[in-house]
Amino acid sequence: MTSHVEEASFSRFSRFFQDVEDSGLRAYDGLVIQNASDIARESDRVRKETNWAYLQEKHDKKRRQEEAIKRIGEDVGRATEGGYAGKHFRMGFMTMPAPQDRLPSSCGQGFTVRSQSLHSVGGGDEDGSPNSRKQPPPKPKRDPNTKLSISSEGVNSGSASSICNRDNLENFDP
């Protein structure tokens, strides 16, 4: 009888330990699933946040471009209302000088309209006059001992002889 009681108690203990082990494994599996779910949820949140920031930036860029186009259109509209179409017009992404037939009619025949960029190329002029230009450095003087090439000697001698002939013709009295 004692063996029968021992077997029954051993059987109860083994069932108890088996239940504890099963219960621990179920809890562990639940935690693993919960952790994987949290990781997936966080990954989705980061992806959505990044995508939202990208879309927001793209939308802002498009809105700024549309506003710039609208402002340029308004500026062109205001310029054409006054009878003067402006110095430049915009075509796509390029700004081009206005054609000559669109210039104001008050300009004289000898007057040439220059692009503003031509005035700003030279940098800062001291006197501030738009007509003043920077002069190139003077040419270096030729050493008289340097022999010229044959072609330039022929030109120089030909011009010298023609000068001499002119002098002779002026003094020549028939």
UniProtKB/TrEMBL annotation:
Positions with biased composition (Basic and acidic residues): 58-78
Low complexity bias (residue ranges): 146-163
Pfam families xref list: NYAP_N (PF15439)
Single Gene Ontology BP annotation: neuron projection morphogenesis
InterPro entries in the record: NYAP1/NYAP2, NYAP_N
Residue ranges with Polar residues bias: 106-119
Domain Neuronal tyrosine-phosphorylated phosphoinositide-3-kinase adapter N-terminal span(s) in chain numbering: 53-161
Region (Disordered): 58-83, 95-174
Superkingdom field: Eukaryota
Name used for this protein in its record: Neuronal tyrosine-phosphorylated phosphoinositide-3-kinase adapter N-terminal domain-containing protein
